[in-house]
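Reopening: structure tokens for the 1-deoxymannojirimycin complex, inputs below.
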Amino acid sequence: MSGKPIVRSVHSDDEPLLESPATFRGRLRARWHRADRTARVVSVLFALMMCAVVVVRVAMEAMSPRDGWPGPPTTIPPDAEEGVKDDSARRDAVRDAMRHAWSGYRQHAFGKDELLPVSNSSNTKWGGWGVTLIDSLDTLHIMGLNEEFREAVTHVVGVDFKKAKAGYTTPFFEMIIRSLGGLLSAYEMSLDRRLLDKAREVGDALLPAFKTETGIPYPRVDVNTGKAVPADRVCIAEAGTVQLEYWKLSELTGNPVYHNTAQRVVDILDTASKPYKGLYPIWIDIRSGKLVSGQITFGGMGDSWYEYMLKQYIYSRRSEDQYRRMYEESIDGMRDKMVRHSVYDTGMYYVGDLDSTATKFSPRFQHLTCFVPGMLALGSRVLDRPDDLELAKQLTYTCFQMYNRTSTRLSPEYVQFRDASDKGIAPSQENTTDFEIVSLAAAKSKEREDGFYLGPNRSYILRPETVESLMILYRITGDATYKDWGWQIFCAIERWTKTPAAYSAYGDVMSTDGGSQLTDSMESFFLAETLKYLYLLFSPADYYSLDEYVFNTEAHPFKIMRTPPP
Ligand code: DMJ
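Re-run output (same inputs, fresh job):
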């Protein structure tokens, strides 16, 4: 075979189209030498311009939010998947969703805090411990995804929890419920000692939060220096939702310091002055231990403080009466002052918020507050409070309608109500924690039909509270409607939030635009809570039974204490 080219140009001066590089380069050089100065400058400028065009195009492709993916189709028949009735088929579908979310995380973000599920990139916004991986451990175990669990454990035992990203200060409450909670639960399931060692490392790294005059913790810790970040105030959910985790750590390590340290918060708040029985304004002054200001809410910043009164009582085998008393006081206060129903759908009950004096009522129902029906149902059984179960059913109906009555059947962050004289939150404050009650414009027909109206924040960020309540309500009442509601929610999540890599928060639940609404965020609680509760909803009730386990606020199941504490 000769080395000569075999393809020839049909339109040039009979030059070969494929030339040997040497010949081509030689000719270029010759032309360059023949060209005058202007021609050379023009050629260089042209080459530079072409390079710039290529660089800009490559950068634009890389930054394209949808990675060339147009988003889910909007023309499929509504909820085609909803025909599935069989529990095991539903459970398998939820497990497939977990597998999908996990494999996207594994491929694009393994060991990082979060996968960005549209751009297929990652972040370290929680300091770089890999919070999605830790939060997912027990869900993988519960779903029997054993290979994935093993691989995740191998990674997590190599993480140094005494360090975080340079300059980062770790949010105390978030990392206790997600990381300490996740590790403790994964340890109890696998009995892999290394996970308990890691749990202790997290617990120790964050314990400096409590080094304050009162023992009320600071909200952030610099784990690199081993010191908390001084602050004036902390909210009740941050200070009061770490007790279950530290108590479990004490039980498993035999070291009472963790529990005793965290318990101090409960003792201080137990005796603090409150505006109405069992209701706590959200802000605590760290120096004095007094409740100083802020709303009273069972939504963000207040929620899990109330939840943990009941859960510690259950965890202690119903032996510590302080938690029962505090829980019952709070629920009585809530029932007296915070529960109302829609003026248009009188079966639609909701829990609003109050100002710090417990006199002014804010008729907004947050998605975060949808954990309340589950808590009430659990409390009704443990404490024999049958009326609470009735209220739980009514609130669950509302939480479901928050999904069911939107265009996508996904729920917004909150819905708004009005009272019989058309008073409600000032529109300018719908999206804030302040509220002023004013006369509203007359209700439109949509509001009359739905019973509520939507505010400006219409995003669904893959939150778990409603499916959490559905799981508990189903287990306590045996009413299969709760399973059908959960399945409908799951189908909407599949339809609107699924990306090629995982699942993404959705910008406007009233928009059926699909892909353009995906906000490129997947919080770890989607894998830790939303998918886990859905999976348990379709599992036999004795699988992670509510008689044997208490779930921390991030859905990590802890075995109820074997013997009551001394
Ligand atoms: C979770 O991180 C926890 O459930 C927390 O208590 C509040 N809500 C988020 C998820 O919405």
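Residues 63 and 119 are 7 Å apart (CA to CA). The pocket of 1-deoxymannojirimycin is lined by residues 303-304, 368, 463-464, 525, 553-554 (CB under 6 Å). Marking as resolved unless the reporter disagrees.
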